[in-house]
User: Fold this.
Amino acid sequence: MYIRKQRLLTPGPTPLLPAALHAMMGSDIHHRTEDFRKLYKQVLSDLQEVIGTSNDVIVLVSSGSGGLEAATQNFFTPGDEVLVCSAGKFGERWVEIMKAWGMKATVLTAPYGDVVKPEAVEAALTQNKNIKGVFVQASETSTGAAHDVKAMGLAVKKTNAIFVVDSITGLGTMPLDVEGWGLDIVIGGSQKAFMIPPGLAFVAVSPKAWKLAESAKAPHFYFDLKKEKKNAATGESAWTPNTSLLLALAEALKYIKQLGMPNLIANAQMLATATRAAVTELGLEVFSSSPGSSVTAVRAPAGMDSGVIVKEFRNRFNAIIANGQGSMKGQIFRIAHLGFFDFHDLFAVVAELELILAANGHPVSFGKGVAAVQNVYAEAALPKEALAVS
Assistant:
C-alpha cells in the first residue's frame, strides 16, 4: 500500500523498453558524421523489415500527427477530392487536416464505437472517379475500434486513388500487409508499439503515392518527404534529427526483430482478448462493436462516471489509464495493450479494477475477472495436458 510504482497503461505514450531508454544516453554524436549515417541507415532498414515493406520509409521529428499532415501536403493539391473515414476522435482529426489544407472531402462517418464499412468506401469510389485519396485509421483508439483495412485497401487498389492509413496504433497490434493490401501511405509513431518516448513519426510511401506526389502543389517546407528521401539515401536526415530517439528506436527495432513482429501483434491480441473476457465477467460492456487490439474501451457501470475509475486507478495504485475522448469522456475508460505490456501487467490491472468497482458500489466477486485473464493465458501458454488435469 505504501510503495506505489507508477505504471503507464495508456494507448500512448506506452511503457518504455529498458534497453531503448539506456541507449538514449549515448546521444552525444553529431548527425553529419559516419557514426550517425550508419545508425540512420540501420534504423530505416529495420523499419522496413518490421513494418513489412520494401517501400521507402521516412522518419520525421514530430508526433504522429506530423506524419498525418505530411501525408496530406506532400501528395495532394488544395481542392483535390478525397474520401475520409471518420469513426472517432482521430477520424475527426483527418477531417480537420483536410479542412486546413483546402481539400474537398467526402466524409463517411460511423457512430463512436462502430466502424466505416469497406462497402461504403467501395461505393463512394465507384460514384466519384475524381477521388485522389482515401484516409482512415487502422486502429481508432478513441473508441477501441479497428477498421477492416484489408478490404478497404483492396477496393482502393483498383482505382487511381491512394490509400492513406493512420497506423500509429495499428502497427504492432494488428496484421498489416502493406503491399499486398495496397496501403500506399502508412503512418506510425514512436510512443506506441515501438516502446520509446514521443517525438518521431514514420511514413512508409509506395511508388503509386510517389507518382501522385509529382503533380502535388500543396506548399511544404519542413515536412518535405522528397527531400527526406533524397537525404536518407546517403544516411542523413534533411533537418536536425532527434538523435536520442533514433538510438532508442534502434534498440526497440532490434528487440522487435528478435521477438518477431507477428509475436508482438499476437501479444497485443491476447491481452485484448483477455481484457474483453475479464470486463464481461465483471458485468461491464466492451464499447466497440468491432474491437481492436491496441486498446480496449469499456463502458463505465450505469450511474458511474468513467472519470471516477480513471482517478481511482491513479489515486489508489498510481496507475494511469485513459478516459474517453470527446463526447465519450465520462462514459468509457480505456486500457491499452500495445508495446511493452505483458500478462503480469494485465493480472494487476484487472485485480485493481475489481477493487475499484467494489469500492464504488458495483457488485464484484473478487477474482472473477482475474480468472478470465488466467484462462486466456492458460489456453495460449500452458501445455494441453496440464489443462486437462486441471
